[in-house]
Every structure is written in structure tokens, then in C-alpha cells.
Design a protein that fits this description.
By secondary structure, the protein is of the alpha+beta class. It has 2 domains: 24-188, STM4215-like, CATH 3.30.2000; 191-224, no CATH class. Helices cover 33% and strands 28% of the residues. It has 5 helices and 8 strands; from the N terminus they run H-E-H-E-E-E-E-H-E-E-E-H-H. The protein has helices spanning 24-38, 69-72, 124-148, 191-204, 209-224; strands spanning 60-63, 77-82, 86-87, 95-99, 104-121, 151-154, 158-164, 172-188. Strands 1, 2, 3, 4, 5, 6, 7 and 8 form an 8-stranded mixed beta sheet that branches. Strand 7 (158-164) and strand 8 form a beta hairpin. 25% of the residues are buried.
């Protein structure tokens, strides 16, 4: 059986240890990074420059989860968000494989994550222009993006009409939407083999059962601290 490709990697610059490889939140970081690179000189569109220093940038590209109100309030800007995540059941019980000697189940499914990108500006025409550039960038790069981040599929990129921005009555937003699918793999290990392994480890040691578990508890507490 051919194993599916690995899930997408965490995007460069994503530092939270809670955003793991294959997390839908990792996708936001990936597309933020892609768009920042698109608007970085020398390949940036005229008049629109992204820079790590917000005082230098003429366009701001952030996750929709950005908490800094000063950054979120700057325009023009591109904000990357996601909608509901679906872990599909492509095979019965998600079961892709099994090993008899340790009763491990190897499981797999396809995750589908709709991505929403808002191109925001104080001027309606500018919002539409940034949306057009962003849509074409993602469309033209879709094959490369899928290969680089091991996506199973990217749906066609939809550019929606320019409408008043919900978060700012004096701004306009042009939304871009598409879906990403990628493979998710995990392993289920029954508790019985783990208990048998503990028994074997106890039999190999010269310490008592109580001392063994006390040492194990101490190591776990040190890890948590």
C-alpha cells in the first residue's frame, strides 16, 4: 500500500508549539508567508511593499488572528483566515493499516480547510486591485504550493465582489476564497501492549515496583515544570 504524503509543515516564523504540523492553523501561517514573499521587493507590485518593519511596509499582511489593533487598523492590508475544518471519513474507521505484533492501527483521512483572504483598503478600487493581484498570485502558484507543502488539492481561487468592510465602516474589502485538502495520518496504540512493555521494563530492573513508578512520576513532573 502506498502511504499518503505527509501533512503540511508549519510555516516559517510560526513559533507556537501548540500549532503542530498538519494543524489547520498552520495553513494560515503558510499563506501569510506566501503573500508576504509576493509583496517583498524586487518582485512586489508597484507601490505595494511588505516589510517586517510595519513602519516601512506600504501593505500589511497578517493572520486574521492578529491581536495588535494598531497593526489590524492599518490599510491597505491582507488578512488570512480559515473557516470550518472537516476531517472526512474516506475509509471505514479511518483505518489505513494494522500490525499484528503490537496491535497498532495506522489511520488516515483527508482534511478540508476553506481559506478566506480579505483584501482591505480605504478605497474601493484599491481593494479590488489588491484582490486581483492576490487571486492571480495564488492561482499561478497553486501547483508549486501543492507540491511544496504536500497538499492533496487546492480548489480554484474565487475572487468575490468588493463590499464595505465589516470591521471598519470607512473601508472596503475584497474577499478571496478557496479550499485546501491535505492528508492526515495518526497511529492508535492499544493500552494492553503498553502495559506489557511496562511489565517487561520492571522485570529488567533491580528496583522495586514502587521505586520504579516514583522515578517515572518524578521525570514527568520535571518535564511539566
Amino acid at each position: 500500500m502506498t502511504r499518503p504524503a505527509p501533512p503540511p509543515i508549519v510555516a516559517p516564523g510560526q513559533s507556537s508549539t501548540l500549532i503542530i504540523q498538519g494543524s489547520p492553523l498552520a495553513l494560515i501561517g503558510i499563506f501569510v508567508t506566501i503573500l508576504r514573499q509576493r509583496f517583498t521587493p524586487p518582485d512586489n507590485p508597484m507601490n505595494y511593499i511588505w516589510n517586517n518593519d510595519p513602519n516601512v511596509s506600504t501593505i500589511h499582511i497578517e493572520s486574521a488572528f492578529e491581536d495588535d489593533k494598531a497593526v489590524r487598523g492599518k490599510k491597505p492590508g491582507i488578512y488570512v483566515d480559515k473557516e470550518q475544518t472537516l476531517y472526512g471519513r474516506n475509509i471505514i474507521g479511518d483505518r489505513a493499516g494494522h500490525t499484528l505484533h503490537d496491535s497498532k492501527d495506522f489511520q488516515w483521512c483527508l482534511a478540508t480547510v476553506p481559506i478566506l483572504i480579505e483584501c482591505v483598503s480605504a478605497r474601493r478600487a484599491e481593494s479590488a486591485i489588491i484582490g486581483d493581484v492576490t487571486q492571480w498570485t495564488l492561482h499561478a502558484m497553486s501547483d508549486v504550493i501543492q507540491k511544496t507543502f504536500a497538499f492533496h488539492d487546492m480548489s480554484p481561487i474565487t475572487l468575490n465582489r468588493t463590499v464595505p468592510y465589516e470591521d471598519d465602516k470607512e473601508a472596503w474589502s475584497t474577499a478571496i476564497s478557496f479550499s485546501v485538502q491535505y492528508n492526515v495520518r495518526w497511529t492508535v496504540l492499544p493500552i494492553a501492549p503498553l502495559l506489557q512493555e511496562v511489565v517487561l521494563q520492571l522485570n529488567r530492573t533491580d528496583i522495586s515496583t514502587d521505586d520504579f513508578f516514583l522515578q517515572l512520576l518524578s521525570r514527568n513532573l520535571e518535564t511539566l515544570s
